[in-house]
């Protein structure tokens, strides 16, 4: 006896374009690097750590902005619709806004960036990790549905 399985449209399964995946995955090391350099600056007060953190935040904002653009475009496709797509966009948008505020804080004098710069770096890193986890959590391995 042969059994056929009809698989209707599923909102929990989202495809991810490789460029979108690279852009999204690139935000984590950039914002995490900014967090680690803020921790190093907090412990040593070497101004170069603050400069390094500013550049990493700027790079993270570029990649997060492009990933956000890909995510918004993905909402118009059938695979991107659903609760996870919207949650992903909201988390990534919140991370981008907080990252922009963090960039403004880091644009001040190096001595004036602490402790607010460190706190914002922690928040942005957690938001980016959460957004990445939400976006990648819907993918299945090995073709199993």
TrEMBL record:
InterPro entries with a match to the protein in the record: DUF2231_TM, UCP029509
Signal peptide start-end: none
Source species, domain of life: Bacteria
Domain DUF2231: 17-130
Pfam family, one: DUF2231
TM regions (residue ranges): 21-42, 54-78, 85-105, 111-134
Keywords in alphabetical order: Membrane, Transmembrane, Transmembrane helix
Name the UniProt record assigns to this protein: DUF2231 domain-containing protein
Organism of derivation: Halopseudomonas laoshanensis
